[in-house]
Specification:
Chain A: Keywords: Disulfide bond, Electron transport, Membrane, Mitochondrion, Mitochondrion inner membrane, Respiratory chain, Transport, Ubiquinone. The structure holds 2 protein chains of 2 kinds. Chain A is mostly helical. Chain A is built from 4 helices and no strands. The longest helix of chain B has 24 residues. Classes of the chains: A mainly alpha, B mainly alpha. Chains A and B meet through helix 1, helix 2 and helix 4 of A and helix 5 of B.
Chain lengths: 122, 191
């Protein structure tokens, strides 16, 4: 909790990824094959549901299902536990993936620095 | 000028000895308002004038000091210390407790400003310099800390969130004719 801030500002200022800058490593680097992310909900569907822009992500299909369930079951506000869990789980996995991407970028930066140090020492 | 005359006339009508027209014609007037001997006089120069002015304003000669004559129109009105009524003793039995003033006491030129509802010249409980240092010290410290917070921002160790449809190009108002830059989002192999 905060170790990354110490690394970024004090100990490893050159290798720790900067959230403002774009990540410089190719997303497919190091993977034999990497599939693209599929978007299930169409733009028209999201538009009709009037989703705010922040919610039009890769979990939008679960959110649309949840909204439909809530609308159908009103006033029973305890009804849509399953749909809500699906959406929450999808968002959680998305966040975990973001954490992993950050860590991947950090490790690649460290590796790059090691290789450069080796090249200079040699 | 006309207003004063009208007031005199109305007062004469209400308080005059006769009634109606006869009061108006007899020329009597009310006892309120300033009389000839209490009206503001010219700035005093000689000691006799000073003594007469002090007596007029109900002051001792030692306490009486006129305003310096710069042509501002103060006349012989006494220059009293610029202290507000809030500084006077709250527990003493004044004739007018709200104004903290006794009957017949000379009024400050700016008396209406120095009443307790308005300007207060009371000394501050802590020296002024201490108060200034504390306030500006705190504000300066907060500004400095906010500056540090902006320079060394705190964030979660996560990559930016990925959005579909070329980063919601059309939803954010992008031109449908123009081709936006290519955005590829990849799956996480672990899920």
């Amino acid at each position: 909790m905060g170790a990354h801030l110490v690394r970024r500002y004090i100990t490893e200022t050159d290798t720790e990824p900067d959230p403002a800058k774009k990540y410089e490593f190719d997303p497919e680097f190091g993977f034999p094959e990497r599939k693209e992310r599929e978007m299930v909900a169409s733009q028209m569907q999201m538009n009709l549901a009037q989703l705010p822009l922040e919610q039009r992500d890769y979990c939008a299909q679960h959110l649309l299902k949840l909204m439909k369930c809530k609308r159908d079951n009103w006033p029973n506000f305890l009804a849509c536990k399953h749909e809500r869990h699906d959406w929450d789980y999808c968002e959680h996995q998305d966040y975990v993936m973001r954490m992993k991407e950050y860590e991947r970028e950090r490790r690649l930066q460290l590796r790059k620095k090691r290789i450069e140090a080796q090249a200079e020492a040699a | 000028m006309a207003g004063v005359g009208f007031r005199r006339w109305a007062q004469a009508l209400s308080k005059g000895k006769g009634s109606g027209i006869s009061a108006l014609l007899s020329g009597s007037r009310a006892a309120s308002g300033s009389s000839k001997d209490t009206v503001l006089g010219p700035p005093p120069k000689s000691p006799e004038e000073m003594a007469a002015a002090a007596k007029k304003y109900n002051l001792r000669l030692e306490d009486y000091a006129p305003y310096p004559d710069k042509g501002e129109g103060f006349g012989d009105y006494p220059k009293l210390p610029d202290r507000s009524q809030a500084e006077r003793d709250p527990w003493y039995k004044w004739d007018h407790p709200d104004l903290r003033r006794n009957w017949g006491e000379p009024m400050h030129w700016d008396f209406d400003m120095y009443i307790r509802n308005r300007v207060d010249t009371s000394p501050s409980p802590v020296p002024w310099s201490t108060m200034c240092k504390q306030l500006f010290g705190f504000i300066g410290f907060m500004l400095f800390m906010f500056y540090l917070g902006e320079t060394f921002r705190s964030y979660q160790p996560v990559a930016p969130k990925q959005y579909p449809y070329k980063n919601l190009y059309l939803e954010k108002g992008g031109d449908p004719e123009k081709q936006p830059e290519e955005v590829k989002n990849y799956r996480n192999l672990m899920t």
